[in-house]
Amino acid sequence: ERERTFVMVKPDAFARGLAGEIISRFEERGLKLVGMKLEVLDREHAEEHYGEHEDKPFFDDLVDFITSGPVVPMVWEGEDATRQVRQMIGATDPAEAAPGTIRGDYALDLGRNVVHAADHEDEGANEREISLFFDDDELVEYDQHD
Ligand code: CMP
């Protein structure tokens, strides 16, 4: 099924000059980019985005980190895009992430893991995360050439 999925390059990727490299992975895979912006999140926005982790011991560190520099929220479209992107990104823990995955190649630790993607096991995640970052008119329509 053709679908849209939410992905975000994190501040550590920016600090290390890896943002373009990470965005290229999805482009080269043939996914269609329909939304992208550059911003520094305020705490309120970050806390809402990571609301499901509110009770976790690492929540404050997570919010500190994700607001510490620029992020690139994106929406990528394609066949089975959510699962495809999760596979490309690899496991959350870099120690578990396979070489060849984005985290397997670049992530430093659990917090500084360079990229976020909506959870494919959480059915409402894409809709919720996309609408938290993008208005409908910020998602562009065009034909992707082969
Ligand atoms: P992400 O996919 O953005 O979703 C939640 C994030 O919480 C996750 O990536 C990790 O970066 C972060 N995270 C998970 N576990 C820990 C932890 N134990 N310590 C710090 N950050 C964590």
Automatic annotation (TrEMBL):
Record has Transferase as a keyword: yes
Catalysis: reaction(s): a 2'-deoxyribonucleoside 5'-diphosphate + ATP = a 2'-deoxyribonucleoside 5'-triphosphate + ADP; a ribonucleoside 5'-diphosphate + ATP = a ribonucleoside 5'-triphosphate + ADP
Protein name as it appears in the record: Nucleoside diphosphate kinase
Predominant cellular place of this UniProt entry's protein: cytoplasm
Domain Nucleoside diphosphate kinase-like: 2-141
One GO MF term: metal ion binding
EC number: 2.7.4.6
Residues annotated as binding ATP: K10, F58, R86, T92, R103, N113
Top-rank taxon, per record: Archaea
Record carries keyword Flavoprotein: no
Enzyme class, broadest EC rank: transferase
Record key words, sorted: ATP-binding, Cytoplasm, Kinase, Magnesium, Metal-binding, Nucleotide metabolism, Nucleotide-binding, Phosphoprotein, Transferase
HAMAP family: NDP_kinase
Protein's gene: ndk
Pfam families named among the record's database cross-references: NDK (PF00334)
Gene Ontology CC entries for this record: cytoplasm
Active site positions: H116 (pros-phosphohistidine intermediate)
